[in-house]
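Course exercise 7: structure representation. Students receive a sequence record and must write out the corresponding structure in token form. The form below is the worked example handed out in class, using ATPase (291 residues). Read each field label carefully; the graders check that inputs and outputs are placed in the correct fields and that the protein name is recorded exactly as given.

STUDENT ID: A-19
EXERCISE PROTEIN: ATPase
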Amino acid sequence: MDRPETVAQLTQLLRDGGYLADRGLSTALFVALSLGRPILIEGEVGVGKTEVAKVLAAVFGRRLIRLQCYEGIDTSQALYEWDYARQMLQIRALSQRELDSDEAVDKLFGPKFLIERPLLEAVRTGDQAVLLIDEVDRADDEFEAFLLEVLADFQITVPEVGTIKAETPPLVVLTSNRTRELHDALKRRCLYHWVGYPSAEREVEIVLAREPGASEALARKVVAAVNRLRSLELTKPPGVAETIDWVRTLDVLGVTELDAGTVDDTLGAVVKEHDDLELVRADLDGIASGG
Ligand SMILES: Nc1ncnc2c1ncn2[C@@H]1O[C@H](COP(=O)(O)OP(=O)(O)OP(=O)(O)O)[C@@H](O)[C@H]1O
Ligand SMILES: [Mg+2]
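STUDENT ANSWER:
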């Protein structure tokens, strides 16, 4: 299937892929798929922003192409690079006479020596790809402006080779943790969806979907404890990933009840910031009872 026919069908497909999307997210993704528009997903840390792109690719049998953004990322890491090592080998194999000819030099800058990076690969793959541009807020302004150009027409010009255009656009999913505000121009080009923490009910469901062997009673206790942690103003509040990790940890230890001692012993699964530990240790009973 290329594209779902209804929002409900998309929700079900994602669920079959192990991802529980709420109605808002499913609707936004459905519209993005139907209109061929990029979607920007912002939200808290560890709430399933990256995962949804992976699951989308899996359930539609598309190739997942991931561009991980970071400070200082530039176009050669995003678009293409020339394979210098191979070019050098080729040059050594050429005779002086061949080297003097334009034709041999042109070949050195042909498709054979081009290393595709994610954006070029996505343009070539078109609608058989899900392009995940992950953590776009970590890249700098110039890179964002450059992305905007690529997203505008899905075409990339390699001066030595020519212009390569996507026949059909890939589904583009951008994610951001909102460590900085993105530009209006980029937002305007994209559909937007904010992912917050799931409700307790939903989070229990997510845990059980990911950890089918876990006990529901324990999952409920852990979710309540995690929600208490989220109310403590920590520098790094736990995401869904931490909830799942915590349940796994307790499972491995054979623990079925949460008490202050167990919470203290297993905190490493959920609280990963030294400065947060003090706040947390002052509230062990509250956390254990999920109050
Ligand atoms: N709705 C959900 N359905 C199923 N699994 C989920 C869901 N939300 C989160 N998860 C689980 O949480 C884990 C973390 O999700 P993910 O890495 O996608 O978060 P993120 O929002 O991209 O986090 P970060 O901001 O750190 O990049 C996933 O591996 C997945 O197992
Ligand atoms: Mg992520």
